[in-house]
Specification:
The structure is a single chain. By secondary structure, this protein is of the alpha/beta class. The protein has one domain: Rossmann fold (3-Layer(aba) Sandwich). Helices cover 35% and strands 27% of the residues. A six-stranded mixed sheet has the order 6-7-8-3-9-10, sandwiched between helices. β9 and β10 form a beta hairpin. The radius of gyration is 17 Å and the shape is globular. It starts with a strand and ends with a strand.
């Protein structure tokens, strides 16, 4: 579903990615692991159109998307949940979910998908009128994933979903990631420093080292 070939990204004179290649089949969960500064988040930002490529290609769902702006990437069903959640702190939970659905016109689908998100994350339903900025880190991560699901994605990119979250909520969130993959048929590319947790739910993994994809790892780990 997604094929990345020889991806290069620079921030000024600093080369962040130089030669990243990977493939994510439809319906799979694939993990991208590596040390801090290896280029994991930059890879996701490049895939979602937030940073420009200096070289390489991105083919998604049969189309070249490497030159599309972020809003066009989202409209094709490729959605990015960034590191740090980036929820709208002054908006309520329900309002945040509505923001995720800004490209959708089918009100019935929006209502059904909102109910699906509340079923996945009952804590959000309990607090739906509460400002997102008052939520815990784990609850904000649930909201960020829920907001992404309201964009009607086919391909979901999750950047460090366990970062700064209590262990009990991390377990819940990863269980829901697997549930979303199975129930909604979403293809998922997961960036995660908790390698053991990520590998437990993945078909296979790519290891990044200093901006390069070094090798592809398959289970058993």
């Amino acid at each position: 579903m997604l094929t990345v070939e020889n991806l290069h990204v620079s921030y000024g004179s600093i080369k962040a990615l130089h030669g990243v290649s990977l493939h994510v089949p439809q319906g799979s969960i694939v993990t991208l692991i590596g040390a801090n500064g290896a280029g994991k988040s930059t890879t996701l930002r490049a895939l979602s159109g937030l940073v420009k490529l200096t070289a390489g290609s991105i083919h998604y769902d049969g189309h070249e998307v490497s030159k599309l702006p972020p809003e066009k990437v989202v409209s094709r069903g490729l959605c990015h949940v960034p590191e740090g959640r980036m929820v709208f702190a002054n908006l309520t939970i329900r309002e945040n979910l509505k923001m995720g659905a800004y490209l959708q016109k089918d009100r019935k689908w929006i209502a059904e998908q909102t109910d699906y998100v509340f079923g996945l994350f009952p804590r959000l339903k309990e607090r739906e009128g509460q400002s997102a900025g008052t939520l815990s880190g784990g609850e904000q991560q649930m909201l960020a994933i829920g907001r992404a699901l309201l964009s009607k994605p086919k391909f979901l990119m999750l950047d460090e979903p366990s970062l700064g979250i209590a262990p009990l909520l991390v377990k819940t969130i990863f269980e829901r990631i697997v549930e979303i993959n199975r129930e909604q048929g979403l293809t998922i590319l997961l960036v995660e420093q908790n390698a053991n947790l990520a590998l437990d739910v993945s078909s296979y993994a790519y290891v990044l080292e200093t901006g390069k994809s070094c090798w592809k790892a398959h289970p058993p780990w």
